[in-house]
Amino acid sequence: MMREFSQRTIDKLSQNRLFKLLLPTFESFLLININKEIEKNRYAICQSADALKNGRQPDDMDTQFLLKKAREIDEEFLQKANSLSSAINIQYQDIERVRRKRIEHLLQSSYRILNKWQDIPQIRVVIASLFGQKQFHILLHDILGLYIDETKILSNSVKIPHALFFVRDSILQAIHSVMAEVAEELASELTNRIYITR
C-alpha cells in the first residue's frame, strides 16, 4: 500500500508545474521516507504478532518500543541518504504526537487481523468479518492521513533552494493536496478489492 501510495503521488506531482521545480529533491525525499515507513510498519505488525503469541494485547510499552525503533530507523536511513542527511533536521517533539497515533492504529488493527487469521485463513474474509466496508475505508484513510500529517512536519524540515523559498508554501500545499487525493483514491480502491470483488 505504501509503495503504491508513493508512486501515485510522484506520478501526479510530476504533472504539477510548481512541483517540477523541486522534483529531484522531493522525489528522493519521498522515496527514502516511504522505505523507512514500510520498515516501521513491518515492526508494528511484528510487535502485534509478538503480543498475540504471548497472550496479551498491545499496550503502551509496545507503542514506546516502536517510537524508539522509529527514531533509530530515521537515523539509519538519513545516514544512508548522504545527499539529504544534512538537509533534514527531524524535530521529534513535533512529529511524535502524530506518529504515536499511527503506531496505535497499526498495532490494534494488525492485532485484530492476526488474531482472527488464526481461525480463518482467507484474509479478505478476516477483514470483512472484523470491519464494515465504511469502517475499513476509514481505517486505511486514517493510516494514510496520519502518514501525510507526518510528512507535512518532515517537509518543513527539508531545506529547499534559496531561489524557491518564496514559493515554498505554495509548493508544499500542492504536494499535500495531491497526497490527500491519492490517499482517498487508494483507500477506496483497496476497500473495494476486499468487499466488492469477494
If you had to describe this structure to a student in words, what would you say it looks like?
The structure is a single chain. The protein is mostly helical. It has one domain. It is built from nine helices and no strands. Helix 1 (2-13) runs antiparallel to helix 3 (23-53) and helix 1 crosses helix 9 (168-195).
- Determine the oligomeric state from the structure: single chain
Give the overall silhouette. Answer: globular
Q: Alpha-carbon distance between the termini?
A: 19 Å
Give the beta-strand count.
0
Order of helix and strand elements from N to C terminus: HHHHHHHHH
Beta fraction? under 5%
Give the total of domains.
Answer: 1
Brief characterization of the structure:
The protein is mainly alpha-helical. The protein has helices at residues 2-13, 17-20, 23-53, 60-80, 82-85, 92-117, 123-130, 133-155, 168-195.
